[in-house]
Amino acid sequence: MITSVTAKPKQTDDDTEQQGALHGIKVLDLSRVLAGPSCTQVLADLGAEVIKIERPRIGDETRHWAPPAFSDDTSAYYATINRNKKSLTVDITTPAGQKIIKQLAADSDIVVENFKVGNLKKYGLDYGSLKRENPCLIYASLTGFGLTGPDAERPGYDYIIQGLSGLMSITGPSDSEPHKVGVAVVDLFAGLQLTIGIQAALIARQHTGRGQQVDVALLDSALAMLANVGMNHLASGEVPPRLGNQHPNIVPYQVFAAEGEEHFILACGNDQQFTKLCQVLAVDWHQDDRFMTNPARVKHRKLLCDRLVDQFAQHSRSYWLDILNQTGIPSGAIHNVAEALAMPQAQAREMVIDFMAQGSPVKALGNPIKLSESPVSYRSPPPTLSEHTDSTLATLGYDSDMIAKLKADGIV
User: Fold this and answer.
1) Rg (CA), the chain
2) How far apart are CA 50 and CA 170, in angstroms?
3) DSSP assigned state of 111
4) What is the reported pTM?
5) Domains of the chain and any CATH numbers
6) DSSP strand pairing (263-267 vs 331-333)
7) Which residues are designated catalytic?
8) What three-state secondary structure class fits 84?
9) How many Å apart are CA 204 and CA 102, to the nearest integer?
10) pLDDT digits 0-9 by tens, 103-154
11) Alpha helices in 32-126 (DSSP H)
């Protein structure tokens, strides 16, 4: 078990521990796997109290998505998005389990769930049922396709949504099959959008005194992620091609190989930067009508990039990165994960934090949100399964005999 966090909490001027921005907010987390838990971990890092509901004996299935795992067999996947939470096991298919959830929801500010549309209604745990007892409740639902529409009842998976949304059609080499992104970006973007929706609902509640339902879908999130590529289609009617590492609207803006096949990124975002690049290369292409402006460079993309390939192959990557950075031309190396996390900038920004697992240090990814007055905190490690069941039930008025019976009946 990961037992403690060694990262020091931020201190106020009087050297007392600061409360997080969401201190006092109670979250009942009925979500599992990645998208929903990534949202509730952000809320937890910001100071909210998050009670994670898991299945008795089994828990969130990501607990078992190993290797790799920590010394107590908790998977690295589970640990990625479940710190600062309490674990309560409840069988919500039973009347006794449903009673526990309703008791918790009645005293919560937020419920987060990612069940298939309609699944919680049969247990009396849908928004309509819970808001009758708690009109201030913010009920956040994260589904594959949303709560409305012809596909609402379909299950959603990041990989499938990457395909359906068009995201995979523009990812990967132009002469190869479509590729998914290396991380489940749709899940993670949807989790962030659910977080934004929840925080907006909290602000709205201050004005109205009422809660509301937040509806975020994986498909909607992925379609919104198409951004300028989606707008290119809406503006032109053309189907955007797969361009590999090239940019659909800017040239040169892609990966190039230096001497020895060392790759780097060049990102000329405007005509001035392209002129500087030409000066570095000692060429006059910026005076050529075919390359003078970005629209012209996009039109003559292959001709220009073939010339650049020949130029960059003449020197090492370090040579090009040094001279490009000195000249103010955006460029960068392509790191592997180990190199990225070891960057001094990543360390300075506390993007790698230290936990202790059975007396041994364990590293984890930090939170990217930096608040000057109410910073995020790392208060507790990912919980062991059912770690907080007894203490949570005690706050609801269950005595030790009642808890023992619930355990004997397999309800918690």
Assistant:
1) 25
2) 37
3) E
4) 0.90
5) 2-226+369-408 (3.40.50.10540), 253-334 (3.30.1540.10)
6) antiparallel
7) 187
8) coil
9) 24
10) 999 999 999 999 999 999 999 999 999 999 999 999 999 999 999 999 999 9
11) 35-45, 76-80, 95-106
